[in-house]
């Protein structure tokens, strides 16, 4: 960025009443953390970055720190932003996703955004392109953390959605101002639950959009006297929140999930991609749904994908296949349903992409499709988080796809959660973490 370009951008931001520029990273606990500079220091944020302790990567949901043998009190890293990624999020603030690096500008080992970028480049080296679309489920709360509406909830109901019409229309306007595209918005099954669907994008851009969407939803809600919970289980005994990801892959011949002779038109490489995702599910569950609350959501009957199988439009399968039909304008894709909002979206996408590519490289055969409710007939994914973390920590596949450094740090963070909240009554843990993953 030249000096003239920097001055022009600062002038434009000031014209938009921007006083502060924020840069954020999402840590291994799935919490997004930020630093701010006055708008005139934008250039410093871009070039030298803002200093942060290496412990930022292992901060925990309750502000504890899960120190590891490699991460202690010594050292410094930098958050650097790209001015092309700036978005206006209101209240005089422009935001950009940051990369975590060292003093020289090289990516830090635990920078999830950089790791996802490297995976995106690796796909290109295999002659593949990927698009990822995200679904964000969240729960609207009062200022004191309770339910916003006291009357009976009607899932997807016109009454329940129009009750929040002022919030929803402001949310659409705020998203537009922030440069956040979304495809649909609706009240969901759970009491006071809301879902926003984001359009498919390249992996890093898709993960950035997830964080931007969480920020915009939270800021708009605040102006309406509400808070937003992105907890996997915001209230005991009620519907949980998912963070489903949809993946499509293509090579020079076209999409991998359509145009072939396999089930529902899947091409051989597409079959192997799905097989790769299924093959690695137990190993990677610590990334997708590794928080102390995740296992409570990941149960049969919750439409959370608790069964290790795939099927056409099967909402109880971990991998739901969406075929290329006139009702699906984006083309065929696979949805990974087990992901919840406590996951770092960059790492979740990294694991999803990496497992699909691993299946392609190994030409794994596609298991038989499950065309009915898999409860009781298909292997259920483990819901005990100690077991989930044990599998994850020992997994050579997870180390291959995510790096040993990520494994060690993520396990430290999640085991801290287990020690701190796992022995509490579940109702207490749910209440304590209701806002842990909110932006």
From TrEMBL:
UniProt cross-references to SUPFAM superfamilies, sorted A to Z: Glutamine synthetase/guanido kinase (SSF55931)
Pfam families (alphabetical): Gln-synt_C (PF00120)
GS catalytic domain segment(s): 112-439
Transmembrane among keywords: no
Key words, A-Z: Ligase
Protein origin, superkingdom: Bacteria
Keyword S-adenosyl-L-methionine: no
Cited SMART domains: Gln-synt_C (SM01230)
EC number(s) stated in the UniProt entry for this protein: 6.3.1.2
GO biological process annotation, one example: glutamine biosynthetic process
One example GO MF annotation: glutamine synthetase activity
UniProt-listed InterPro entries: Gln_synt_N_sf (IPR036651), Gln_synth/guanido_kin_cat_dom (IPR014746), Gln_synth_cat_dom (IPR008146)
Enzyme class, first EC level, given as a word: ligase
PROSITE patterns named in the record: GS_CATALYTIC
Similarity field: Belongs to the glutamine synthetase family.
The name this protein goes by in its record: Glutamine synthetase
Organism from which the protein derives: Mycolicibacterium fluoranthenivorans
């Amino acid at each position: 960025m030249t000096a003239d370009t920097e001055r022009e951008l600062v002038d434009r931001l000031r014209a938009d009443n921007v006083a502060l520029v924020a840069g954020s990273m999402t840590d291994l606990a799935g919490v997004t953390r930020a630093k701010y500079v006055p708008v005139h220091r934008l250039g410093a944020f871009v070039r030298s970055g803002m200093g942060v302790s290496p412990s930022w990567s292992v901060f925990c949901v309750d502000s504890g720190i899960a120190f590891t043998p490699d991460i202690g009190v010594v050292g410094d890293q930098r958050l650097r932003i790209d001015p092309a990624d700036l978005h206006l999020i209101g209240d005089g603030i422009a935001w950009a996703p940051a990369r975590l690096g060292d003093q020289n500008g090289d990516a830090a080992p635990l920078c999830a955004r950089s790791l996802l970028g490297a995976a995106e480049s690796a796909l290109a080296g295999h002659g593949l392109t990927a698009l990822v679309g995200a679904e964000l489920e969240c729960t609207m709360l009062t200022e004191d953390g309770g339910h916003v509406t006291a009357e009976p909830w009607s899932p997807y109901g016109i009454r329940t959605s129009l009750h929040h019409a002022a919030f929803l229309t402001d949310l659409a306007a705020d998203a537009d101002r922030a440069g956040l595209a979304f495809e649909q918005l609706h009240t969901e099954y759970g009491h006071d639950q809301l879902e926003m669907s984001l359009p498919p994008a390249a992996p890093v851009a898709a993960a950035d959009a997830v964080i931007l969407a969480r920020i915009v939803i939270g800021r708009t809600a605040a102006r309406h006297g509400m808070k937003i919970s992105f907890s996997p289980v915001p209230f005991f005994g009620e519907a949980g929140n998912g963070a489903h990801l949809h993946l499509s892959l293509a090579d020079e011949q076209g999409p991998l999930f359509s145009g072939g002779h396999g089930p529902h038109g899947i091409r051989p490489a597409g079959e192997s991609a799905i097989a790769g995702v299924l093959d690695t599910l137990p190993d990677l569950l610590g990334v997708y749904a590794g928080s102390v609350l995740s296992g409570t959501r990941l149960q049969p009957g919750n439409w959370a994908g608790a069964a290790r199988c795939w099927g056409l439009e099967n909402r109880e399968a971990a991998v739901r296949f969406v075929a290329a039909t006139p009702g699906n304008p984006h083309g065929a894709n696979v949805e990974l349903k087990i992901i919840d909002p406590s996951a770092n979206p960059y790492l979740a996408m990294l694991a999803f992409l990496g497992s699909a590519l691993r299946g392609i490289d190994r030409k794994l055969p596609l298991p038989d499709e499950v065309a009915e409710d898999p409860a009781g007939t298909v292997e259920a994914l483990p819901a005990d988080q100690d077991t989930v973390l044990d599998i994850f920590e020992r997994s050579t596949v997870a180390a291959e796809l995510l790096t040993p450094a990520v494994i060690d740090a993520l396990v430290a963070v999640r085991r801290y959660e287990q020690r701190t909240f796992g022995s509490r009554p579940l109702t207490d843990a749910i209440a304590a973490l209701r806002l842990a993953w909110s932006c």
